[in-house]
Each structure stands twice: as C-alpha cells, then as structure tokens.
Amino acid sequence: MNYRSVIALLFVLIIVVSSPVLAQLDREAIDVMEQQGVDEGWTFTVSENPATQYPLDQLCGLKEPDDWQSKARFDPMTATSKLTIPSAFDWRDHNGCTPIRSQGGCGSCWAFATVGALECAIMIREGVSVNLSEQWLVSCNQSGWGCDGGWYAHSYHGWWTDHCGGTGAVLESDFPYNATDGPCNCPYPHHYTIDNWAYIGNSGSVPGIEEMKRAILEYGPISVSLYAGGPFQGYDDGIYNYCVPGEINHSVVLVGWDDSQGQSGVWILRNSWGSWWGEGGYMRIQYGCAQVGYAACFVDYRPIIVSCDTEFGAAPLAVNFQYEASGTTVTGHNWNFGDGDYSTDPNPLHTYNDPGCYTVTLTLSTPDGDLTKTCHSLISAYADTLRGDIIEIDSGGVLGMDIIARNNLELDKITIPFTWDGPFGLTYDSFTVAGTRTEYFGSAVAISYDPNNDRATISLQPGLEPPLPPGEGPVATLWFSAPFNVSGANSIALVAYGSYSPHFMAGENIYEPVLIDGLFHTGTSMGCCQGHVGDVNMSGDDVPTIGDISVLIDHLFISGLDLECIEEADVNQSGGAYPTDDDLTIGDVSVLIDHLFISGQPLGECL
Questions:
Q1: In 3D, which of 483, 347, 477 has the Cα closest to residue 416?
Q2: Are residues 342 and 367 in the same domain?
Q3: Does 293 share its domain with 182?
Q4: Position 25 in a domain
Q5: 279-283, 347-351, 467-471, 566-570: which has the minimum mean pLDDT?
Q6: For residue 254, what pLDDT is reported?
Q7: N or C: which end of the chain has fewer CB within 10 A?
Q8: 551 or 46, which is more confident
Q9: Which residue has the higher pLDDT, 360 or 314?
Q10: Nearest Cα residue to 374 out of 226, 171, 207, 511
Q11: pLDDT score at 189
Q12: Which segment of 181-185, 501-505, 594-598 scores lowest on mean pLDDT?
C-alpha cells in the first residue's frame, strides 16, 4: 500500500468510522470512503443521500437492554418437512411489503423495525397495505424509549399498555409521525394486535441462516439488529461487504435472501431512512456482515377476517356477518354489533334500525385464550335528507333560500342540482356558504349554470379540511331576484337533470338522500295559488269576471272537470282544504254573482 493510501485509510478510520456519531457525512467524507472502497474491494458504492445529512447517532437508536435474554422467549425454528427453503426468496415479489418509511432525525429505528414487521405480516395475511404509527410507540411507551433510543416494542402490539391502558397497533392517521419525543395524548384507537412474538434460535447474538430463512417464510419479514457505521449510512447500491465489527446500534427488517449473490449469499434488508437511501430503501448485505441478524425476532400475526354482505345502505339495514380464522380452533363466538346488540351465532344476521356508523367487534374463544378483531366504522346506515327551506315573503326583490342537510354520516361531498321555474319569474343570482355548516369547506363551486332552462348545480367539498360531521342545518344559501308585486307560491325543486344528480358522498360511498323542495310564498296562506280567491279560471284578472262564474258552474253542474287551484274557487272561504273540493258549492256561485252584479263586497282574505 503506498503512502497516500495509508494516509487515506488512517483518515477513514479516524473520521469516517468514529466521527459519524458526532457529525453528518459531507462530500469530503464520502470521497474518502470511495477511495477506501477501492482499496478494500468493496462491492457496493456510497454517495450523499438524505440519511447522510444527519449525525449517525440520530439515526441509529437501538439500545440493547441489560440481561434481556433471561426474560426472552426463543423459538429454535426446528426444521419441518412441510416447509422447503428455496435458494432465493423476496417478500417484495409476493406483495408482502408496505412502502418504505423514513424516521428522519430521530433515533427511532427500533420503532420502525417493530412496525415494519407487523405491517408486512398484515399485508401477507390480509392483502391490505396499512400504515401503522411509529409515533405512538415513541411517545406512548412506558419503557422510557424515544428518539434517543429503544428496543423491540412488539409487546406493545400484543399485551403491554400505553399510558391510557391501550394495547395494539395504532394507525398513522390517528397519530402521525413527527420525529420527536412529543406528548402521547392518548387514548387512540387500536386496530391490530399480534398473538405472540419470539426471538429466533436458542439464545442471543446472531441465529443461524437457515433458522432466519425459515422464520421469514413462515411468519413474514423479521426484525433484526446490526452494526451500522459510516459506509452503511452512505450506502448507495451493490452488495454491502464492509464487515468490520462494531457495537450493535441499528434495527432493520429482513424481507428475503439470495444464496447466489455475493460470496455465499445476501440478505434483502429493509431500512427506515427513506426510499432515497440505498436501492429504493433496501440493501443487499452479505451473510454475517456487520453482525446482521443479531437478536432476530418474528411476530406471530393470526388475523380474524370479518366480512359482511353490505357495509352501507339506508336504515333499517340488514347485514349478514361472516368471519375467517385460519389455523385456530374456535370454541365460542361473541359479536358486538356496536348498536347495543350482541350475538353468539357464528354467522349472524343483524338489522341496524337507526342511522349511524357502527364499530363491530368479534371475540373468538380458543383453547389458547380469546382472540379479538375490532372493525372500526364497519357499518354505515343512513337516513339523510336534503331540503329547501319554506320562505314567506312580502314581495319580490332579492330572495334567499337555505338548503338544509341532515346527515348521519361524515360527508366528503355534497352535490345540489336545482331548478327555479315558476310563477314568480325568478332569476338565479348566486349562492354562498357563509354562515352555514359548510362555511369552512375548501371548495364550494357552481359546476353547472343553465339559465335558459332555469337550472344550476353546486358542489361542496371540504378539500384538505375534515369532512362535514353528522348533524342538521343549512349547507348553502341560494339567492334569486324576483319582480315586485309577486303573489302565490314558487318552489325551488331539488332534482336531477342531465348528468347531474343530487347526492351525498361519505368516504367512497355515494348515495341520494330524501329530497324535499323549497318554497317561496306570499301572504299567510300557501294556498293562495297564482291569482286571487274567486279567480276560478286562473286568468290573472285583477277582479273576478263572468268567466270565473262560467268555469265554476261548469265544474259543479256540467262537466265536473278538475279545477287548477281549489282554494281560488272556494269563493266564500268556507274552509275547504286544498286539494279537496268538498266545500265548492252553489254558495260559491252566489257569492261570486253578488260580488259582480249586486253588492260588490270583497272576496275573502286573498283578494
């Protein structure tokens, strides 16, 4: 080795291997490592990446507890004839890995290795990709762990409790990651629990390669520890073979292997430093290198899969429930439907009579104890309405009508098509959500305006804001102009037209509520139709005429044809209620003749 190589190597040993615990890796340190790689025959490359922007001790937060082996559960993973170990296997090729996460500048690798194994197990067993909360483990554990370090936290996903007594994995959406030792603020909903977990092999240190392969095949990706130095932090691609000894400081997940790569085979390692580190967030690392596999452990996740023939519909809503629990002997069932009713039937039929969102819980009795599956907000039953207000007006001018929604579910969108054709001769001006339940919505727009056909459609969406909570009240106000001296009544119809239909959207569910039209009317009685009492032929005359007598006599004594507005024909205001004509009698003819030809007395209240 020449003089310059010796100096470079000394610089690497002093600066690269030791100082990353104190400072980030800059371009100069990366250059020195590249030269070291050339001198030592590394089969991988290094480069600057988001992880090199942090000191290594902010990334590698694994802290090995004293004497943890004495209390640990070990599984030797004894070979069985039922399981054949292939020469290569990768859970990424079998839809068994969720997206890569990033822990940022917090030493929470222990939490990400814990959550990563469970996320993958859920993906494998249930076929769904879930994002679980590492922050809940960081902030809510009672073991004193945090951004300055911790250990495998699988027990918090099974039986250990947080400060509020909660057990089981929390969703990322319920407690988002913020890379700090923030407050817990529990309780949180707990959606997933493991049945058990165990270390692989017979003792601590690094288990055998075959035992780890068997655990990966049987249970899914496993949590492991290793020593991560500067070259690990700067890893870009290739087979990692910087195999110097060092103190265990980092925890990751192994998702597979390949015996044909490297000197004798490689592990497929999943890190928690973002997808810009390594090979899309992954590393190929040589067997036995950097003590990879130290304290390897698996999680035993045996899901109860609850299903039903319908999850959404109008109340009363009948639902048939079923479940699957593979590999478990079930001796008893206890269904909690979330509405106060229970059942011990294996596959019950239950009817939700009241609208709302319901969480369903199934507890199975087994020889090994109870297993519980909670399905949060599984059933949504609705009995929603969308109606226009009933507005009494003195005359024309500017008229405002509230559109009122009653919703039993959280709404992500409201679409309101409406028409305004009628005797008032209304002109639609605009709408507003000011002062309504949707005032905070990020999007309130007119998506259709067709004045030639007296119709328009508005769309209300919260955008990035939370959905509209269950409740009742105005969600928009429609503004119209009308001529002065209007009388009678004019409806605002909530109806579909063209490609537009009135509907609510709750999550991915779109449905039409019960629709009730709004009404503008003048005077104290909505029965005073379009003209005046006594205007039997609906001619719009200022005073009744002989034509009105003719139509009324024809109705009473000759053709019996229906009248357009019965209250207009109830000339003597004897109280016949629209739409009956029980009180249209010869008395009405007499009063009308008296008014026209004899006394000229006024005709009733609505003249």
A1: 477
A2: yes
A3: yes
A4: no
A5: 566-570
A6: 98
A7: N
A8: 46
A9: 360
A10: 171
A11: 87
A12: 594-598
| Nearest alpha carbon to residue 185 among 164, 206, 212, 214 | 164
Report d(CA 295, CA 247) in Å as an integer: 13
Tokens of 17: 């291997």
Same domain, 477 and 587: no
CA 428 to chain CA centroid, nearest Å:
36
Buried residues in 223-245 as b, exposed as e (16+ CB within 10 A)? bbbbbbbbbbbbbbebbbbbeee
Strand partners, 511: 504
The answer on 285 and 348 residing in a single domain is no
First and final C-alpha spacing in the chain = 115
Write down the catalytic residue from 109, 147, 529, 565.
109
Query: pLDDT category, 576, cuts 50, 70, 90?
Result: very low
Catalytic option among 141, 241, 249, 271? 271
Nearest to 242 by CA among 73, 36, 391, 64: 36
Q: What is the pLDDT of residues 420-466, one digit of tens each?
A: 998 999 999 999 999 999 999 999 999 999 999 999 999 999 988 99
Q: What is the pLDDT of residue 533?
A: 67
Same domain, 240 and 320: no
The CATH number linked to 372 is: 2.60.40.10
Q: Is residue 341 included in any domain, yes or no?
A: yes
216 and 90 fall within a common domain: yes
pLDDT for position 174: 94
- What's the structural domain count of the chain? 4
- In order of 110, 452, 549, the CA distances from 269 in angstroms are 15, 65, 96
**Final residue in a domain of this structure, among 272, 300, 328:** 300
Amino acid at position 175, single letter? F
Segment holding 385, helix H or strand E = strand 385-388
The answer to whether residues 60 and 251 touch, using CB atoms and an 8 Å cutoff, is no
Tell whether 139 and 287 lie within a shared domain.
yes
Answer yes or no: 271 catalytic: yes
| CA distance linking residue 379 with residue 356, whole number of Å | 8
Identify the domain containing residue 105 by its residue range.
68-300
Q: Which of 54-58, 430-434, 540-544 has the lowest mean pLDDT?
A: 540-544
Task: Tell me, yes or no, whether 396 and 457 share the same domain.
Answer: yes
Residue 131 lies in a domain: yes
Q: Which helix (H) or strand (E) holds 377?
A: strand 369-382
Look up residue 516 and give its two tokens. 């009730």
Return the H-helix or E-strand segment holding 45: strand 44-46
Of the three residues 284, 300, 316, the one that is the final residue of a domain is: 300
Q: Which of 190, 250, 333, 532 is catalytic?
A: 250
In this structure, is residue 94 part of a structural domain? yes
Identify the pLDDT of residue 514: 86
Query: Which distant-in-sequence residues (6+ apart) come within 8 Å of 81 by Cβ?
Result: none
CATH code of the domain in which 201 resides? 3.90.70.10
Alpha-carbon dihedral 96, 102, 107, 110, rounded to 10 degrees: -10
